[in-house]
Amino acid sequence: MDIQTKKGASARPEFSEAAPASTWQRWTQSDIWYSYKRSPVIIVSSLTFLALVLGAVFSPLFSPYTPFDPASLNLMNGFTKPLSTNAFTGDYFLLGTDDQGRDVLSTILFGLRISLFVGVIAVLFAMTLGVVLGLISGYIGGWLDGVIMRIADIQMTFPSIMVAMLLYGIGKGLIPPDLRDEMAIWVLIISIGLSEWVQFARTVRGATMVEREKEYVQAGHLIGLSRWSIMLRHILPNVTGPILVIATISLALAIIAEATLSFLGVGAPKTQPSLGTLINVGRQYILSGEWWILLFPSLTLLALALSVNLFGDWLRDILNPKLR
Amino acid sequence: MLAFIIRRLGQALLVLMAVGFVSFSMFKFMGDPVENMLGQEATVADRAELEERLGLNDPIIVQYLRYFQRAMSGDFGVSYRAGLPVGEVILDRLPATLELALLSAVFAISLGFVLGVYTAIRRDGYLANFIMTTSLIGVSLPTFLIGVFLIWAFSVNLGWLPSFGRGDTRSLFGVDLAILTVDGLKSMILPAVTLGLYQMTLIMRLVRSEMLEVLRTDYIRFARARGLSQRAINFGHAMKNTLVPVITVTGLQFGSIVAFAIITESVFQWPGVGLLFINAVSFVDIPVMSAYLLLVGVIFVTINLVVDLLYFAIDPRLSVSGK
Amino acid sequence: MKRTILKMTAASLAICAGISAVNAETLRWARAGDSLTLDPHAQNEGPTHTLAHQMYEGLLQRDMSAQIIPALATSWDPTDNPNVWEFKLREGVKFHGGEDFTADDVVFSFNRAMMPTSAMKELLASIKEVRKVDDFTVHIETDGPNPLLPNNLTNLFVMDSDWTTANGCEAPQDIANGGDNPCVRATNGTGAFVLESRKQDAETVLKRNDNYWGIDEFPMEVTEIIYTPIQESATRVAALLSGEVDLIQDVPVQDLARVAGTDGLQLATAPQNRTIFFGMNLGADDLTSDTVEGANPLADGRVREAMNIAINRDAIKKVVMRDQSAPTGVIMPPFVNGWTEALDAYPDYDVAKAKALMEEAGYGDGFGLTLNCPNDRYINDEAICQAAVGMFGQIGITVNLDAKPKAQHFPLITNRETDFYMLGWGVPTFDSEYIFNFLVHTTTDKYGSWNGTGFSNADVDAKIVSLASETDSEVRNDTISQIWDTVKAETLYLPIHNQVLNWGMTETIDFAVQPEDQPHFKFLTFKN
């Protein structure tokens, strides 16, 4: 719209500072926006991501069928080819159907929703836990560092896959059967989150140990800043680079980890499938000719993870003050 | 330094005991081994009797202490599935996993480093951008799918590489290794790439990111101002300074290579400890699962220790006595 | 003469398939699972028996069409004493180590297989004593008359008494007691193949036994077997498609068309001795996993019948099983004594009638229930359950599917912790009594260990027990048919189908599928 005028204003920063700028104005004048507009890869990947998120959020609106209502399914629709009408039932399917007669497009939209939900919440959980523990460990050190790092050792000893298998097993044992389908997702989130925090903690700790020795931190001590204030306001911003690298990769990784767990039979249940579950089901058809059951969910997952990774790459370069 | 190592080893033992306990508590939820050990003709009484004899009715803490006591003397029990001593079974399988992990780590680190440095130096080059983008495809798909896809492409359609197993092995000091034969190496390519792809991308991105940061620092600018050649700056100064975080992550990644070997080994029927573990899980082979988890524990603790020691070796500012 | 044919086969194979003449008689064989142990009495499990059958033999065995044929025994007959069977043994047989086979080995092996640590002891539970009469005659005495004794002996392998004793493994391996023994690592049987090398989960190599007693009786064209378990079904099929193996068992149903349509490959198909069905807890007063308070909807025969006719077995066959199954109305494959076409007939799929029955039983609004299902045991087990969930949903029963690995699923049944479950049952004795003992009789110490239905009927129990010692086959078969009538009338189980076995192999192989899924490679021939 009137970006032109605003750009003109940004050429003379002293003016825009005089008048209190709205958030939108500040955003459009920022380096981030400038860099964004100049990078077609990022525009494409962020729009892809946005489209996938919208598709997931509004999946009940977009889906031509309700894939998870068992009573509405007709097994005779099974293995319908894409862009075709099933000969028995007369139903039309844009992307075909899977082995249970579920519309592939609808299962992808609903599966995307579950994958995204699991990924985002798991990473938020891991990041919060990891950053706090990493800062404490690296900055305060001493016995606290020892305890945290030993816990991290134990955690690392159980690679993500095993943490998830463990939690899943215990969860399935403890959760009442009628709640299992809903709880299965939370068990997944916690197991993936738990397996990721160590990455954050170790990296933050390593960086903090280096930063701690630097002059500006020593200076902070001298002028009497509190430890938490130094950690959060001075050290943390200096380690955001590595954290962001890991957080981006972690989001994609969490989504992929969930898919991997489906392979081991501990992912989202087949009656409430995530993209990973769909791919794991589709994998069986790689040699049999029903390519659409594998291809479409895989492409969706690829688009999702790739756009997150690309977007993260760009964001990291932009947000890292040292790289400007 | 010696005191530090001894303290860490003491801590490591505690870690291993904790690992053992956690794993013992989880076995209860993984199924009933007796079901697999007896055929379908077994009577109710047979099952009860075997459970009793295996000590499965004892409290977990009792089972655990009994296990740990035996393990300390090197007796890890007998595999419920194979009927052979667990120590022997694991030692028999370990070389297969280690050689696969090693090859994939070599692949990941060497290619990751080269590509990382390249993409950092040619930050905005077309090829560098292309590498950055395409490398992401490998980490945007789950390992098992990549493995299945590689088999589909290279074994079924092209017929170039084997789809399963280790191929021929050759014995070296009594250890059978596939890496020593041409056939074995061919069998290793697909699983090693599958296993190393994710690590390769991660290392590459990390090397690039660290290189870029270092290249912006003052002392590199000074070096440039002093008239040092770009090559000397890139490889002599910049690369050296990317080492700390790269070593941390690479060390940690070696651990996850061992873990992800579970997936790769089962896709490619690679007869290593990962495959052994997966089979043990489906059979509820408690002695093998415990020993495997302890083994993974030992590997991780060792890696952690080595990484910590390397920190000190590389960055003298971090002294042991320092707070 | 056999040798000449063999050489010709080898030569022509080498030309056709372009493989070297040396490998022509080698068979590279893959299946999903590996044998668990080489100790022939330590596990009662399919892949373990299959491998053991190549190296060890029993008194008798089932051939490729599952008919009982002589092996180490040449004849077997009941004696005048109805409790005693007489087995005449084959003379001139040698073990792989060169030891002579005699009656002592048979007595020794039976005693070994009846020890507490043996996994085969349940099949021999009726045996009181095994006696040597002379070097080549053995008497087996049972508790009471046991007309079916030979059926229980087809997987009972004979070991050499001296070799086994010398190796210190007189007792089958006892895993609970640190039970490693040399017989777990080495074999010494009388079978057609000799163990060359073995690495569990990796590779087992067998060589032809050129001193085999049956070398002129069986084709014996395979000179070397390389056996590799490949768990991942896609990898297994890929290995066959890319020519890395010659024969695979357990071909996934979705890949059958691909295998059959690939040049140089063929499929062999046969009905399997295994029925898949659902069991329901109809004995309890109230169920734990349902939404009905204070009553057990499954105890109502009308509900069970409604569920039975709500299952669209033809759709499951067509879509889930790709036509590779035989829908059935009884939990018994056709090989089994007692099977009739009338029993096998399955009810028409009829949602309207099912709904009416639900209404009549007072459950017109339906109810909720959890279905426990294995996900790594039977062909497409979880997919069948998923499909069934949809079908039950259409008559108002909201089923919550709980699919688990077999190690977690089966204890639910044997510990009676499930209200509604999937189970598959094979009948190694090929007689209905086996099914009744485990699945129909009231649960007691000796009987009904897999009867998770809670069904208990004293009259039926008495009939089942009478089968074991009834020597008049007409009376016996009549009792069997009466029991089946009760089972069907009560809708005790919801039968789905009998599984179909598929083996994929190169076109140069001439080999039929064995209904127990046990290939005996001494029968395999190569085509010219």
Describe the protein's architecture and organization.
The complex is a heterotrimer of chains A (324), B (323) and C (528). Chain A has helices at residues 3-11, 13-18, 23-29, 31-38, 40-57, 59-62, 104-140, 142-157, 160-174, 180-212, 215-222, 227-238, 240-263, 275-283, 291-319, and strands at residues 84-85, 92-93. Chain A is mostly helical and 324 residues long. Chain A has a domain at 103-323: MetI-like fold, CATH 1.10.3720. Chain A has a two-stranded antiparallel sheet with strand order 1-2. Chain A is globular, with a radius of gyration of 24 Å. Chain B is 74% helix and 2% strand. The longest helix of chain B is centred in the first third of the chain and has 36 residues, at 86-121. In chain B, strands 1-2 form a two-stranded antiparallel sheet. Chain B has helices at 2-27, 33-37, 44-54, 60-72, 86-121, 126-139, 143-157, 182-215, 218-225, 230-241, 243-268, 273-283, 286-314; strands spanning 170-172, 175-177. Chain B has 323 residues and is mainly alpha-helical. In chain C, helix 8 (301-310) packs antiparallel against helix 11. Chain C folds into 2 domains: 9-246 and 508-526, Periplasmic binding protein-like II (D-Maltodextrin-Binding Protein, domain 2, 3-Layer(aba) Sandwich), CATH 3.40.190.10; 272-499, Dipeptide-binding Protein, domain 3, CATH 3.10.105.10. Chain C is built from 16 helices and 19 strands. In chain C, the strands form 5 sheets. In chain C, strands 1, 8, 9, 10, 11, 12, 13, 16 and 17 form a 9-stranded mixed β-sheet that branches. Chain C has a 4-stranded antiparallel β-sheet with strand order 4-5-7-6, with helices on one face. Chain C has helices spanning 2-17, 46-55, 103-113, 161-166, 182-185, 233-241, 256-261, 301-310, 313-320, 341-344, 351-360, 381-393, 406-414, 432-440, 458-467, 473-489; strands at 26-31, 60-62, 68-70, 73-78, 84-89, 127-134, 137-142, 193-199, 203-208, 224-229, 247-248, 265-280, 325-327, 367-374, 397-404, 420-425, 493-506, 509-510, 525-526. At the B-C interface, helix 2, helix 3, helix 7, helix 11 and helix 12 of B face helix 6 and helix 13 of C.
